[in-house]
Structures are given as C-alpha cells and as structure tokens.
Specification:
10 strands; alpha+beta; 3-stranded antiparallel beta sheet; Tetrahydropterin Synthase, Chain A
C-alpha cells in the first residue's frame, strides 16, 4: 500500500536562493520555487490506515518552512570556509566571497545545494520525523515545472 502527498497541491513549498560552485551559470546566486512531494509505502496489517496524513504533511511543511526564504549554504562542501561575525555569515568558496545576514541563511549538511542533495537531506529529516513504522519513503524535490530529484529510503 502506498500514499502520496503532492507538495505543490498541498502547499508544501519553499523559495530559496543558492549557488552551485563551478564554472557554469549555476555558480551565480539564483533561486527557485521548490515543492516537496512524498510517496510513503506501508502495510495495513489489518488496520484501515498506516500513516496519519495530517502529521506527515505537517512534518513536511516544517522542513519546507525551515528552508523558506533563506540562502542555502552547503555546510559539507569541500573547501568551504564559514565565519560568523556580528550577525553575519561570511562564506568563502572557490575564489568567491559572500556575506549574508546570519538570520537569512541556512547552513545545511550537504555537499551542494542541488535538488539531488536537497532531496537526500529532506528525506533523512522526514524519515526521522515519522512516528509510525513504514516500509519505504520517496521524496521528490521539484525545483521548477517538470524537473525534480528523487531520493528513496527502504526499511
């Protein structure tokens, strides 16, 4: 049995700015309007349901709200140097230096802030938030119409 939560339809969305280091257009600061969708696999085992939809949606919304309207910084990127000072976060990476108000950033434990890495990060946070036993979870992070990254966890 599986259930599906469509993040775009359910308003599980966030808008964030980021940059992906390298010698290409995505190395410049830019943003996306993301949505998070999830497919959850479980067994009824004689019950009528295996997961509380409202709790699952609430957990996803909490993750989206944490990332919403922030500059996403890849905390696990090789060579990144982060320095907090006077309410600001200075980011040095591959010859570029950025300074952001600290409360407008989220340093997340990923190598890069790509849709692929974000889907792994969100999957891990979502799976840890589940109170019921499930057999599998797929998280899709849509970064625009028609394009998304998907990560999968199986028990």
């Amino acid at each position: 049995m599986e259930i599906f939560i469509d993040g775009n339809y359910s308003n599980i969305r966030f808008s964030s700015a980021h940059f992906i280091p390298g010698d290409w257009k995505c190395s410049r600061i830019h943003g996306h309007d993301y949505s998070i969708s999830v497919r959850i696999i479980g067994s009824l085992n004689g019950d009528s349901y295996f997961l509380d939809f409202s709790k699952a949606k609430s957990n996803l919304k909490e993750i989206a709200d944490f990332l919403d309207h922030r500059v996403l910084i890849p905390g696990n990127r090789r060579g990144i140097v982060l320095e907090e000072k006077g309410g600001y976060l200075k980011v040095d990476l591959e010859g570029k230096s950025y300074t952001f108000p600290l409360d407008e950033t989220r340093v997340i434990p990923v190598k890069d802030t790509t849709a692929e890495c974000l889907s792994e990060y969100i999957l891990e946070k979502f799976v840890k938030s589940l109170e019921q036993k499930v057999e599998g979870v797929e998280v899709e992070v849509h970064e625009g119409p028609g394009q998304y990254a998907k990560s999968t966890w199986k028990h």
